[in-house]
Amino acid sequence: MKYRRLGKTELKVSVIGVGTWQFGGEWGKDFSQQEVNQILGRAKELGINLIDTAECYGDHLSEALIGTYLQQNNREDWIVATKFGHRFHGHLNRTDHWSAEEVLKQLDDSLKALRTDYIDIYQFHSGSDEVFDNDDLWTALNKQIQAGNICHLGISIGSNDNIYQTDAATKVHAEAVQVVYNRVDRKPEGKVLPSCQRQDLGVLAREPLANGFLSGKYNPGTVFGQNDWHSVKNQEQLKLVEEIQRKELPEGVNMAQWALAWCLQNPAVTCVIPGYRNVEQLESSAKAADLELVNHSHPQAWKSKVYE
């Protein structure tokens, strides 16, 4: 595994992390504690040290599954990032809760679910600019840093071109930004990633496989079910992926590994956080750490290289 400095946090994080939305049960699968233990245990063996979760991946369900694992293993081996601002009520059904009082309650619930005394990165979770501009909220959270309950603050921006919140990160003492970034969606390259570099912010890239479109399992003509997560996507996006496969994917290279490494070739990105249904997907993704683009302008030119 390779590691990078997470901006001004000075945390040393693995370039491949573990996204855990799936543990909340909204990917069409309920995870047992044994399955979660197997995924996180294997991740640790591979040198992965960052877990990203949230208060609303289930009603703190993802956090609870992770917390049970952490209680049985060395908590200090992990950098745990979770989020605040929402409450889970059912499949893709959430309500917003942004007052300082509500967020402190969420923090307490997350600490209990994770069975830990502290959260390494506590992230503002896809809120509007209006609720972001709440001095009372950020004052309360910074007091939690002083109390030792939070180590670092972060912002998980809901729109991948939200430069307002990104530019304000240093003002609210946030030190990391989470953003959707992948080969299909390069919008953050315009303003968000340069702003992160100017402020020395760590960057966690979510949806690096574009919700499975860059995993190699979908092709033009694929028909998605009415309730499928991808049903809102159209054949144009599938055609784009086919073009990427044909023009950019090197022969003999796994597409999912290539897509993760493609994100990591951008110097602004610290870590990618795909989700895994099983250990096999995790092991395959971890191999992306050894792939790096030689030249950003020529993404088909690859070599195996160790990240510094």
Could you walk me through the main structural features you see in this protein, from its secondary elements to its overall organization?
With 308 residues, this protein is of the alpha/beta class. The strands form four sheets. The protein has an eight-stranded parallel β-sheet with strand order 3-4-5-8-9-10-11-12, with helices on one face. A two-stranded antiparallel sheet has the order 1-2. The protein has one domain (3-216, 252-304): NADP-dependent oxidoreductase domain (TIM Barrel). It has helices at 33-45, 61-72, 100-114, 129-132, 135-147, 163-167, 192-199, 235-247, 255-264, 279-286, and strands at 3-5, 12-14, 18-19, 50-52, 79-84, 86-90, 93-96, 119-125, 150-156, 174-180, 202-206, 271-272, 291-293, 302-304. Helix 1 (33-45) links the parallel strand 3 and strand 4.
